[in-house]
Amino acid sequence: MLFKSKIAYYMSIVVSVLSVVFIGFLIYKSFFIVKNQYIDIDGLTYVNQVRTDDYTKKLAKNLTKDCQTKVCEVQSMLNLVTNIPYKINESVARSGKNVLEQNFGDCDDKSNLLISLLNAKGYEAYFVLVPKHIFVVVNLGIILPNKKALYINGKPFYKLESTAKNSSIGFPLKYKFDEIKAFIDPFKNKKLVVNRLEYK
Q1: pTM of the entire predicted model
Q2: From CA 67, how far away is CA 160, in angstroms rounded?
Q3: Between 54-64 and 107-120, two packed helices, what is the crossing angle to 10 degrees?
Q4: How far, in Å, CA of 14 to CA of 105, rounded?
């Protein structure tokens, strides 16, 4: 009887320790989810759902397999996103896979998908947060003739508007600089430090 009570005692200690370790792991994991997905901009919290998974990489590769230029690659990825029907998502932004499977998205959803695809192909791209909207800018490493670029710290970035059906690279910027709340690198979940901004 004494032997059985000792076993029960030690088992309860093991279960307690494992429970504490498991709870600690969940807290640790939650901290990194918050750190990597949530960012505060002027008192508002933005949630990103960018992905670097195999699904996104395969999709980006498939979309660009026939392209010989960066313009073709980026336009092919943009075409996929802009042709997904626009519909306001009342909850937090969804992953690109969910947006594709459910075949709808708002500016957050579609921008998350677009920037994930761009990242999968190695493009430098950022979210741009403006009042009640978000869009993506991308650096192509080249200057496009007859297209205005947003020069961030001297480097040209072209606007990609995920909500305008069949839009092209270099969609016109319709916001004043003081309306731009932040440029965000969603893969680092950090604001870009902007020392100089031009649109030309």
Answers
A1: 0.79
A2: 18
A3: 80
A4: 47
- The whole-angstrom separation of Cα 2 and Cα 8 is 10
pLDDT at 91: 75
Helices (H), the chain: 2-37, 54-64, 70-82, 96-102, 107-120
Question: Which pLDDT does position 90 carry in this prediction?
Answer: 79
The string of pLDDT tens digits covering residues 80-111 is 999 999 998 877 778 889 999 999 999 989 99
Task: Please tell me the distance from the alpha carbon of residue 75 to that of residue 64, in angstroms, as a whole number.
Answer: 9
Tokens representing 13 are 């200690």
Handedness of CA 68, 52, 104, 127 (dihedral sign): negative
Using an 8 Å Cβ cutoff, are 86 and 104 in contact? Answer: yes
91-to-86, 101, 110, 139, 166 alpha-carbon distances in Å: 15, 17, 14, 30, 26
Q: What is the DSSP letter of 172?
A: P
